[in-house]
Amino acid sequence: MERFTGFEIFRKRTSIDFLGFRKVAAVLSVIMLVGSVVLLIPAVRGLNLSIDFTGGVVLELGYPAAADLDGIRERLAGNGFADAQVQSFGTSRDVLVRVLPREGRENQQVAADILDVLRGAEPGVVLRRTEFVGPQVGDELTEQGALALLFALGGIALYIMFRFQWKFSVGAMVATIHDPLITAGLFALFQVPFDLAVLAALLAIIGYSVNDTVVVFDRIRENFRRVRRGTPVEIMNLSINETLSRTLMTSFVTALVVVAMLLFGGEALRSFSLALIIGILVGTYSSIFVASAVALALGASPTDLMPPKKEQEEIDALP
After folding, report:
1. Does the global pTM surpass 0.85?
2. Does residue 92 sit in helix, strand or coil?
3. CB-based burial, 8-30: b 16+ in 10 Å, e otherwise
4. Among 10, 137, 158, 258, which residue's CB has the most CB atoms within a 10 Å radius?
């Protein structure tokens, strides 16, 4: 009886020569990575950092009825506050407005101007809380966010090295750095607001990327031990094709949820969900074309993943 392996996109096993495109993929990845690094330079483009990192003014407002968030954004944009972040919290009558600092203007005056603009359309607006976020807080968050990314990457590198072998660890690390860096580069290119939610999305992308890569590497290790004939390229291609259905299905289902967040989650989740969508697409690409190709370029072969001699003898003795 054939073992059930779950829903599969491809009922027949594919035999696509993915690694045959590794040179083209390498050129494409290098172009995207270099472009992302250049775009992230503040003098060139830089990230459109939100108040979480730059400091600014936060106003908590209460409306007498359900607030029209789109109308609030349009009114603020028409009065010189196009960068204002407007979101609801708690109930539909509670609104949070965040504005970047204004050069040459005190934060108290900025808060008063915003309140005057909003009360011009709705006199019943109540100011419940005003908070001024200093630039030093933003600097601390920037530093802590960078450390979080570095610790995540370092932990993943050690995990892959102990589970597989250093050549595969390098491949996984290149793929893992590849995905959030390109995502951040696209955010810089299109000047999408970069806030703490996007930073959390980058950490999630790292986890998603390494998960896909480990699945492929597990199958490569299994086939390196099982397949007696074939070059490393042929065995790696076989492994990628065997896990292709799972990789695409996981990406598709995850993307469905994230697209729903993008369409119906409102302004507060827009940047977060957009980062995840980019990360899913780039992560799927890197798990197929980047991680294994880097390991192969470093000379990965079946001998790197062979079990100890005693364990190998036990495997050979199996019928």
Report:
1. no
2. strand
3. eeeeeeeeeebbeebeebeeebe
4. 258
